[in-house]
User: What shape does this take?
Amino acid sequence: MVDYKCKWHGNHLVKIGRFYPSSKLCSNCDHKHVDLKISDREWTCPDCGTRHDRNKNAATNLNVEGKRVLREERNVTIINPSTGGAPGCHAPGDRVRPVTTRAVVDEGRTHAL
Ligand SMILES: [Zn+2]
Assistant: This one.
């Protein structure tokens, strides 16, 4: 259902692997906190000192990873209307488009690739 609703609204659904350490990665410096327990709802990064709410940190990491997958594995440019559609600038809910979609003018006609 999420997949078809994303397509309906022109968005992409990215499924992140279940073993991606979204809770254990510091969203500020990428340090991996291997000793983080499920009962640790907040933690402080030993490398950069950032204090994390477990769920918010995981959400940030999943957002970044999802956009990396779109950009690097699916060749999608993320468009942010508030920045005039500058590639790489985005926010949650931004619309995206494939990078490979280009128009080529050929003998007076326009074709989408
Ligand atoms: Zn850190």
In short: Residues 2-112 form one domain. The CA atoms of residues 27 and 57 lie 6 Å apart. The two ends are 29 Å apart (CA to CA). The helical segments are 2-8, 54-73.
